[in-house]
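User: Design a sequence. Structure:
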């Protein structure tokens, strides 16, 4: 886990990690949220809508932005203040996603950063794009 202080962060700084979407992730997300939409739970239904298999929940994909801020950029001192995302492409079970954030700006008065965020699949296709405002907490 990273422990960047506000002072250590610079515009242009980038962090990234990868995660592979597994079937049990969809089931766990369904159990937590109660979202039983058949696009996410029924292979035949998803195939009938033109997808090669069940589609991962968009919010499951977006939830990896919490890991980006809380573990990588800035890490343990993070407090997510705002998230704005656009879903560009469906995510499938088995996709390996690259989750990346780049410091776009810093606000010295209130000690927060704005991250440009994107998530790409294994083919390099962008599946999510957006930005986050993340507070950087003081502390040892």
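Assistant: Done.
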């Amino acid at each position: 886990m990273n422990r960047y202080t506000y002072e250590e962060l610079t515009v242009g700084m980038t962090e990234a990690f990868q995660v592979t979407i597994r079937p049990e992730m969809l089931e766990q997300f369904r159990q937590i949220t109660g979202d039983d939409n058949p696009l996410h739970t029924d292979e035949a239904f998803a195939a009938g809508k033109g997808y090669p298999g069940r589609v991962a929940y968009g919010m499951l994909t977006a939830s990896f932005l919490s890991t980006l801020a809380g573990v990588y950029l800035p890490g343990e001192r993070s407090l997510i203040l705002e998230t704005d995302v656009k879903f560009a492409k469906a995510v499938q079970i088995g996709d390996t996603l690259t989750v990346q954030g780049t410091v776009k700006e810093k606000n010295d008065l209130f000690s927060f950063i704005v991250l440009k965020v994107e998530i790409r699949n294994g083919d390099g296709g962008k599946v999510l794009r957006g930005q986050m405002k993340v507070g950087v907490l003081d502390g040892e």
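DSSP finds four helices and five strands in the chain. The longest helix spans residues 58-72.
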